[in-house]
Amino acid sequence: MSNYQGSCLCGAVTFSIKGQFDSFYLCYCSHCQKDSGSAHAANLFSQSAVLHWNSGLDAVTTFNLPGSRHSKSFCKHCGSAVPGSEIPGVLMVPAGSLDCEIDIIPTARIFTARQHSWVQSINNSREYAELPDDSADE
């Protein structure tokens, strides 16, 4: 059994998870692009892991997109995604909300037909270990 710790950006919400993740999806659907503000969402799923809110449960709010199974739980103070799920019996954990390493690699990339054309060139982009200074592009 694994133990994971996580939090939101402002630290108001903290949580722990006991158990294993069943899958790890990088989702390129338009809903995930909109609510992540990025090319895709990176979400872990488990049917058996147990979530415990250590602090800030009163700061957690959930948006359920009408007419869909899409939902997003987040901290009402900083907007960071936190665990939740609209699918009964399934815990969904945004991978970036964890404060520790995970022992699962992405299971699959889904809804790739909806990914932006620039996603294909990400691996060809420059890499920096930290934020580059202005002189790096000269």
From TrEMBL:
SUPFAM superfamilies: Mss4-like
Domain of life per record: Bacteria
Keywords (A to Z) from UniProt: Lyase, Metal-binding, Zinc
UniProt cross-references to Pfam families, sorted A to Z: GFA
Domain CENP-V/GFA residue range list: 4-119
InterPro entries in the cross-refs: CENP-V/GFA, Mss4-like_sf
Keyword Transcription on entry: no
Record keyword Lyase present: yes
GO molecular function: carbon-sulfur lyase activity; metal ion binding
Family: Belongs to the Gfa family.
Protein name: Uncharacterized conserved protein
